[in-house]
Amino acid sequence: MERLSDYIQGERVVRELRYHAPEALEEMLCDLTQPLSMPLERAMGRTIDDNRVPAFKPSEVLMPAMMKTFEVIPDAIAHDELMSLESACNRCEVAGHCWKAMRAGAGIEACRGFCPNAESFMAHGPEEAEAAIE
Questions:
Q1: What mean pLDDT comes out for the span 46-71?
Q2: Residues 64 and 107 in one domain
Q3: pTM exceeds 0.70, yes or no
Q4: Which domain holds residue 91?
Q5: Cβ neighbour number for residue 84 with a 10 Å cutoff
Q6: Of the candidates 54, 63, 106, 101, which has an alpha carbon nearest to the alpha carbon of residue 82?
Q7: CA–CA separation, 72 and 121 (whole Å)
Q8: For 84-105, what is each residue's pLDDT tens digit?
Q9: Do 69 and 44 share a structural domain?
């Protein structure tokens, strides 16, 4: 019975939003602070992983949140490198996992385990920015 409840509160809601209110679904995906039920949050994460919302761009929603997590100074990143990081973010195979982690306020240690840009972000953290200024 729990699986049916999860379906009704999660997958079914996402499917209905995709077909009848895609703008609302995209808005919900882009708002990392909006309260959601656990079944709906899980279903939305799977929707991101399956690329079922083509308008959702991880680099526009998740990368800024991830950069905050790593305390990256955006101005310290060259334009070409930033474009490369955005490309890697948009191709990420665990964007749904990232979306849930950013919603939960995951820390650096948790994010290092799955973010394809983690090493680059660490190279542009606060200590590296201070060293570049000196």
A1: 95
A2: yes
A3: yes
A4: 57-134
A5: 14
A6: 63
A7: 6
A8: 999 999 999 999 999 999 999 9
A9: no
